[in-house]
Write a structure and sequence with these properties.
Strand content: 15-25%
Radius of gyration: 18 Å
Shape: globular
Number of strands: 5
Helix content: 40-55%
């Protein structure tokens, strides 16, 4: 009878299955309600990933009192993108599309760049996961609604 050798998995194989997650939070004003929401968002992500066996929270990137219309003024968002480009992150989780971006074009460009880097995004409120290519239509639709909330007077 021939002997069978069992090869045990190594730590590197196990670590490669672990998702390196970034949480992105943002509020646009420094009002008391918004600051409470901001703190709640950060606390939510710290707790969510604290005991996860499959996900490690790399960092919580949080822009306080900054509009989501333009990514260039959001320093934490830019830091998160830099960390993505440097291979530190392979998944982003955020409360909603409106927290991620209020500019549909910029949102889609960012989603597509991150997808090309192998990074997925999960938008909790909408239940949209960029792992599913079909969800790009929903991102476009929901991103358009988030952008429209900023400029209600432009409605036809």
């Amino acid at each position: 009878m021939q002997a069978v050798t069992v090869i045990q998995p190594t730590l590197t194989e196990e670590k490669s299955r672990i998702q390196r997650v970034a949480a992105y939070c943002r509020v646009s004003t420094d009002s008391a309600d918004q600051l409470h929401s901001f703190a709640a968002q950060i606390r939510h992500y710290m707790q969510k990933f604290s005991d996860s066996p499959t996900e490690i929270l790399v960092d919580v990137y949080a822009d306080e009192g900054v509009s989501g219309v333009s990514a260039e003024k959001r320093t934490e968002f830019q830091r998160m993108l830099k960390d993505c480009r440097n291979g530190k992150i392979n998944r982003i989780v955020t409360k909603s599309i409106s927290r991620f971006a209020r500019n549909t074009k910029e949102c889609l460009e960012t989603v597509r760049e991150l997808r090309s880097l192998g990074i997925t995004i999960y938008f909790e409120k909408e239940g949209i996961d960029t792992t599913n290519i079909a969800d790009e239509f929903m991102i476009t639709l929901m991103g358009g609604l988030a952008q429209e909330e900023l400029y209600p007077c432009h409605r036809i």
